[in-house]
Structure to design on (408 residues):
């Protein structure tokens, strides 16, 4: 079903000079909506069939150009709302008047598109989850962004907890992401205040981070796995990440031969590329890492060759959206392989690629590496983040130190 655009001269509203107001009419699903254009014409100067100002009017060319511009804007508004699956005649008029700009759904859609355009695919997808959940919660066709206040946040929190079964930490993360969106709305002049500025977020419940001991790492190293198999590759990826300060899987996918310079691995952490200050990793490669690289003929690689055959290079992985899908798919495969590896190594732990990062931090802490050095290795923004990160491993470290103390 298509929306129609027409101009109507309201003859019945003619003034003393015989001039009547010209209106824009949008019709969709047999429901019309009108907008005054601030243009008045005598009926003799309006060609209803051609939808144009007649040449009898002294400014016919200027006015027709203006009507063409308005018609174009109406077409754009219809396409935008149709893409959002929110098309109706009244909303087209609101968008043309600038009122729909303050509709939360419209603003959120634009915010998400901007994130995709910047290559921030994960942030865009997370924001889309929140948008869809607010739509499900509100069940309204439109929702003024100004209605997001403390009461709305409380009610939405209850909905997430009871209807979506979200834990406190999940709700906290979603509210932080929603706050980022509203912060930009304030900057854009859509909001005067961000309601989260004076709102107490749900308490952060620190999850226990799982990590492998160095003994368990050695057991994984010694496993006899079929060369070239998926599980063999996954072990290589996991160990290379562990040896190099817990490289995230997304970064591992993108590492190329050119990232190795003078015996050092140098790259920008993809998670931070859209930040004002991206984080760089600069790690000295050691024998364990070179041994893994040689399994992939590292010495014969071109500068643009990927170090590991993780991505499907037949796809345009330079497109952030395609890369994100490819990364998530390959990460899921790797995590399935790691569960098999854990079983073979008799490790009672649900392994995932990210546990390589936890395991590095745990091993570094137990080996006596200082918090500052660990922070640099993990590329955290501040020591507080690292200290919080390491707290998960403090209990086990305390146990071992207490054992050593009383076994002397």
């Amino acid at each position: 079903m298509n929306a129609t655009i027409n101009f109507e001269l309201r003859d019945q509203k003619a003034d003393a000079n015989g001039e009547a107001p010209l209106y824009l009419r949008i019709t969709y699903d047999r429901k019309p909506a009108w907008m005054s254009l601030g243009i008045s014409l005598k009926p003799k100067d309006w060609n209803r069939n051609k939808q144009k100002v007649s040449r009898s009017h002294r400014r016919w060319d200027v006015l027709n150009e203006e009507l063409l511009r308005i018609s174009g804007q109406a077409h754009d508004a219809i396409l935008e709302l149709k893409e959002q699956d929110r098309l109706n005649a009244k909303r087209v008029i609101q968008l043309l008047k600038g009122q729909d700009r303050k509709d939360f759904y419209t603003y959120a859609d634009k915010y998400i598109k901007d994130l995709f355009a910047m290559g921030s695919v994960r942030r865009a997808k997370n924001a889309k989850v929140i948008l869809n959940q607010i739509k499900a919660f509100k069940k309204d066709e439109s929702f003024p962004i100004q209605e997001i206040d403390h009461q709305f946040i409380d009610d939405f929190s209850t909905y997430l907890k009871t209807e979506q079964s979200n834990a406190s930490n999940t709700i906290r993360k979603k509210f932080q992401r929603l706050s980022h969106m509203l912060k930009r709305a304030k900057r854009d002049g859509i909001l005067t205040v961000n309601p989260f500025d004076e709102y107490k977020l749900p308490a952060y419940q620190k999850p226990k981070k799982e990590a492998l001991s160095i003994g368990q790492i050695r057991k994984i190293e010694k496993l006899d796995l079929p060369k070239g198999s998926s599980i063999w590759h996954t072990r290589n990826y996991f160990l290379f990440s562990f040896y190099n300060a817990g490289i995230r899987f997304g970064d591992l996918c993108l590492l190329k031969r050119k990232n190795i310079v003078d015996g050092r691995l140098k790259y920008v952490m993809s998670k931070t590329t859209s930040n004002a200050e991206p984080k760089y990793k600069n790690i000295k490669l050691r024998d364990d890492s070179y041994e893994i690289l040689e399994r992939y003929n590292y010495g014969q690689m071109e500068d643009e060759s990927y170090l590991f055959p993780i991505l499907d290079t037949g796809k345009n992985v330079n497109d952030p959206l395609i890369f994100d899908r490819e990364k998530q798919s390959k990460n899921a495969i790797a995590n399935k392989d790691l569960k098999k590896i854990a079983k073979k190594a008799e490790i009672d732990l649900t392994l995932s690629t990210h546990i390589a990062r936890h395991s590095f931090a745990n091993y570094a802490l137990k080996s006596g590496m200082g918090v500052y050095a660990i922070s640099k290795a993990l590329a955290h923004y501040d020591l507080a983040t690292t200290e919080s990160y390491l707290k998960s491993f403090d209990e086990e470290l305390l146990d071992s130190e207490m054992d050593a103390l009383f076994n002397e």
Notes: The mean pLDDT is 87.
